[in-house]
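Limitations

Structures in this collection are predictions, not experimental determinations, and the ligand pose is part of the prediction. Treat each record accordingly. The example that follows, with HAX as the small molecule, is included so readers can see exactly what is and is not provided: the inputs are given verbatim, and the output is the predicted complex.
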Amino acid sequence: MSTLKDKFYLKVGPMKARVQSLAKEHGDVNVSSVNIGQVVGGARDIISMLWDVSLLDKFEGIRFRGFSIPELRDKLPKAPGGTEPLPEGIFYLLLLGEIPTAEDCAAITEEWQKRSVLPQYLIDTMNAIPKDTHPMTQFSMAILQLQRESEFARRYKEKMPKTQYWDATYEDVMNLIAKLPNIAAYIFRRTYMGGKHIAPDPKLDWGGNLAHMLGVSNDPAFKELMRLYLCIHSDHEGGNVSAHATHLVGSALSDAYYSLSAGMDGLAGPLHGLANQEVLGWIQDLMKEFGGVPTKEQMEKFMWDTLNGGRVIPGYGHAVLRKTDPRYVAQREFALKHMPDYDLFKIVSLVYEVAPDVLTKHGKTKNPWPNVDAHSGVLLYYYGATQFDFYTVFFGVSRALGVLAQLVWDRALGLPIERPKSVTTEWLETFLKEHPPAAK
Ligand code: HAX
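Predicted complex:
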């Protein structure tokens, strides 16, 4: 049977030919124009990056290699007795663009298990970090510390030719992804569980093992939740902060360790991945204020207090999406199946009833609907993972699948160093004087 790497190699030539033909024969065709609002306003909608592993539609949501989340929940292989997709399957899909078989997934599980052992120097480093350091800082530091393992960096020093960049990156990516659940679980157990660690179970898959090593629940549904969670957070096209940061840093031929660590630093921002911890904190404040599940009126008041205090409603709004995030819907379906009567779920549902209307009346956000982070915390909390400042680490483990699959492609396609143009305020003002807009 050919390996994942052999299969990838067969795809590189044809894909490179497609990309080169686009650039060579149609390089001067415009696909995007830029106005001053976009220059000042965070580069929204400017098409300026190639990202093949997923594509986001503002109304429909994310498609991974053309497949929607409901399609993937149906089509991707499952763990024995399970109903949620295996993260191994989404990695295969993102890398190769094809739905894997159960055997393909099993081969990845085996490959990642072989590469998953954490070196002693990494454990020593993690043990030296003060325990009150945010788990995302610990996670990013651990990834960066592992950089000394980089095949890419070693082979680059030995004058590897460009044609081998993808091969060295592939090795780094597989080694790094394999270790992420162990790193995450190590941080979790050390930070919150008195440093009593749980060995991985060789019979379990990558996501099942993360759930197992956390040691918060023996319910098989928690492993299923982890598999679903790790699939749906894996990618959201290239422009979001964690994906773009990984891609940008990688474009300087910084290896996968440097690149992912940078991506995780971006994910740690409260407007991005940290929103999942913010949501739980916000809900707890709400419960404290009203002594449990609030009424609709109390909920509305709490939201207006948040907004009038100059803060955002965490988990709502999006830079691209303009409807309820399908990743939110998938998690809501999971909750309806496994915890329909759970108080926190009732609150999350009540927020969903009230927030879109309040945010619309507030009149600022372009999207009053929930994003992925509005729901994940309640599911984790239900199974005993109550330490919500850890939640973004789960997101990070998952996000690695998408951004690192794309990183292998970046090196296979020989994408260049990124260097968009910036201008000064004065440059824009001068431009306007020289190109006065036509009177409206
Ligand atoms: N609550 C209150 N105000 C909000 C809001 C919210 N949930 N979402 C947007 N706004 C405000 C913005 O702060 C902005 O206000 P100013 O004009 O005063 O600066 C205005 O509405 C316009 O913003 P926008 O164009 O609709 O949204 P942006 O593209 O600028 O920002 C964000 C997108 C996701 C950062 C934003 O919606 C937000 O802050 N949401 C809350 C935090 C959150 O849930 N983040 C996670 C997003 C998903 C993700 O990346 N997960 O990792």
